Amino acid sequence: MNSHVEAVPEEEPASKRAFITLSVMLATIMQALDTTIANVALPHMKGTMSATQDQISWVLTSYIVASAIAMPLTGFVAARIGRKRLFLFSVVGFTFASVLCGAAQSLEQIILFRLLQGIFGASLVPLSQSVLLDTYPTEQHGSAMAMWGVGVMVGPILGPSLGGWLTEYYNWRWVFYINVPFGIMAWLGIAAYVKETKLDPDRRFDLFGFALLGIAIGSLQMFLDRGESLNWFSSLEVIIEASLAALTFYMFAVHMFTHRAPFLDPMMFKDRNYVVGLLFGFMIGVILLATMALLPPFLQNLMGYPVLDVGLLLTPRGFGTMTGMMIVGRLSGKVDLRYLVTIGLLLMIVSLWQMTKFSVDVTRWEIVWTGTVQGLGLGLVFVPLSTLTFSTLAPRYRNEGTALYSLVRNIGSSIGISLVTTYLSHRVQINHAVYAEHINHFNPALQDAVQKGVYDLSTTSGLVNLNNMVTKQASIFGYLQDFRFMMYVCIIMLPLLVLLRRPGASK
Fold this sequence. Notes:
- The protein is globular.
- It contains 20 helices and no strands.
- By secondary structure, it is an all-alpha fold.
């Protein structure tokens, strides 16, 4: 097995802790914001770069794939060059790559610079989490994770509204330039206050293991990102990507448990809380961004809201998340964290259940309060879950443990978005076919609409209008079925709580 240096957190003065927390949170927000802020600017980039929809989607795909492949390297690189050096190098690289993205003049350039952004940004979130865990004593880990969680969860939630505002009033390039002040402040704070860790020069790099994991993650992300546009398994490219991902994941698992010095130390997986936390994190990832992928098109395409109004309607979800995290910060150490996770999951279930009742007549208030309740539930789940996951894990595993935790959550988000979008298109087709069966001369509602002049079935335009109405109703019901699917995911998570131990309950 790899040799490790045990990292025991030292007691830091409160003022120094505050500066460390602020600095790493800025880095976290910068990276988390970039996962969604560029989405709303894609149509404007498409026009500037004279690209097709399929071509411009690589702006997102390149970032996601590069970040996913580079993230598992965090533990090894931090052990060899030092966590602080890696942190500073990543902040500088991410900020500079953001400037290059904003200045890009062609599609090839922006895809290349987004690749660099993904590589440099991959380690920011796991490093910020491990720094905070080492900065605060064990009894304050709940509060530390609450502050860290604000950046991780609020960034993706506020990204679309901030990106829409910048694109509307300035230019799409500003969705990248906005990272510059965050990057400068984060670098100054980390350089001044974060301590360097001890190096582990004897740690060997398992190139074969990393290659297998990198190919597996890259193939999986490509499969998830390209599957919808290529009609999934009817495409040879998608079949190759799925097969390659399955084969290399299997080979990596066998290699990890049989090699003398594997890329990931399998001893981490002897910790029950950590393994259950990984599973929980994956499922939370499914919920976290899937709702944000569904609500904007639902509000814009079916409800007719402009993009800025959509951003404003979704913003309270972020405030609900921050409120939940502040509650966790105050209650940490005073109540069993598993109770907070239970309450959070129940709030998410209630919110999603209410969303299954949405219609074209849904009011702004209903959209706001269901989003706020869901955000509050996410805040109550995310932070205690992070604390419980690492409560019994040995400190020497924190760098690679946090990297794997972030990676699994990101993969969950990618799978979640692919699942809900594919399920939506599938259900819309089925719903349309079912509704169309009732469009006949024996339907009293249709007869009444024809008599009132709502539809003129003797003309082509009248038939088109009727078909558009059926498609709209089928789409609305498809979204509601997606919300119900996510509600079931939350219900499935509840029994997993019994597998989590309280901090200090196990050796």
